[in-house]
Amino acid sequence: MIKYNMYMIVLAKEQIRSLLALKGLTQKKLAELITLKTGKNCSQNSLSKKLTRGTITYNEVMQIADLLEFDVNYISRI
User: Fold this and answer.
1) Does residue 10 carry a pLDDT above 70?
2) pLDDT tens digits for 51-78?
3) Cα–Cα–Cα angle for 37, 34, 39, nearest 5°?
4) What is the structure's pLDDT at 72?
5) Helices vs. strands in the chain: H and E counts, helices first
6) What pTM was computed for the model?
7) In 3-state terms, what secondary structure has residue 49?
8) CA distance 76 to 23
């Protein structure tokens, strides 16, 4: 179970970094966008820590996808 959790943490972190690269943005800029959209202070440091620790919430991931103009789709494997 621990290996699975670590895999998911790394996967989320790398996926968000990939999306940022596709949009030509930095984590710092993303943190600024989150602050503007939510009115809650979000620093690059706090965002980076959430990604590294795997403590980012589903809602935060969905918010990031929306800010970066991506849709999240679930596709059945069967």
Assistant:
1) no
2) 888 888 889 999 999 999 999 888 998 8
3) 50
4) 87
5) 4, 0
6) 0.80
7) helix
8) 27
